[in-house]
Amino acid sequence: MKEKYAIMRFAKYKGPEISRIEGHNERTKEKYASNPDIDPTRSHLNFHLIAPVGKYRQEAERQIARAHCRTRKDSIRVVETIITCSPEFFKDKGPEEIRAFFVHALDFLRQKQAPETFLSAVVHLDEKTPHMHVSFVPLTPDKRLSAKDIIGNRRSLIAWQDAYWKHMVAKYPELARGESASLTGRTHIPTQVFKQMARLTKKRQRIEAVLDGVNPFNAKSKADELRHLLDDYIPGVEKMATQLKKYKAAFEDVETLEAENADLSQELDEAKRGSIQEKMEFAKLRQEHRDAVTLLDKIPMDVLDQLKKEAKADQRNVTEGLNK
């Protein structure tokens, strides 16, 4: 039988991205092309435990101003906590039991943060695994804006995870403590990144099939098909390169953490062993991306040149449209 893990993760947001997470959490968009796991026909099942009183960013700025906090452009204005469990935990749970689970989890966060700082707590049931997004303004009891003081450093995150597991296991004794990313020294790689790579790999395979099928009689039609496929493929390769660069640093950071926290060496050794699977998955992502880049070397130069010309023409048309 698989372990059923209690999972809690934090994310911090500074400015424009706050509106993006609000759009996702509150389901304000009609389509979610970047997240195919969302089933809009089930979105009516989602529910709030804390309903937002306004836009996340505006409400955060209002709270910050009321507290007379000094801010910088890069100040963390919103902290998001994602609460969920291993899928196995929810398999035998009905709607009321699922609601009770998230109410209990929210009670833990209410013990840690002033109730007026919460912006929203919404449970999503329109994706594969039920989960809750809890967003709050990181104001301290003495009215300072400080995500660092609330969430703390890596060691503090370990304490957060320990306290959360103790709170949850008191009601749900079958739950195991989730592995903390603060121990492994890594940034959690979102499932969405793996999904994006899977879609990129499928496109690569389609392009390879087109290239393999080129002959003197269909060269022109195949070139047109390639241009159509590459319109999405090339930006996807570039975007994935940026994302992998971000996570590469996280996987190389464990030794630095060990040097800074010598008294955590035993826990780190255990965490390193526990994170082998994720490191292997990251290595697989990098290999698939290298394959995606290598494919571009096989594309006929005339096709790539035509794509560049079309991209420049599109940009020129956009610029002219803005200047009218």
Please, could you describe this protein's structure?
By secondary structure, the protein is of the alpha+beta class. The protein is 56% helix and 12% strand. It is built from 13 helices and 6 strands. The chain has a 6-stranded mixed beta sheet, with helices on both faces. A hairpin with a 6-residue loop joins strand 4 (118-124) and strand 5 (131-136). Helix 8 packs parallel to helix 12 (276-296), helix 9 packs antiparallel against helix 12 and helix 9 (219-251) packs across helix 13 (301-323). It is elongated and about 75 Å long. The N and C termini lie far apart (65 Å).
Q: What's the pLDDT, averaged over the residues?
A: 79
Spatial strand order of the main sheet:
2-4-5-3-1-6
**Radius of gyration (Å):** 23 Å
Number of strands: 6
Sheet with most strands = 6 strands, mixed
Tell me the structural class. alpha+beta
Shape: elongated
* H-E order: EHEHEHHEEHHEHHHHHHH
Binned, the helix content reads 55-70%
Q: Give the low-pLDDT segments.
A: 180-186, 252-274
Total of DSSP H or I helical runs spanning 4+ residues: 13
Distance between the termini: 65 Å
Share in β-strands: 5-15%
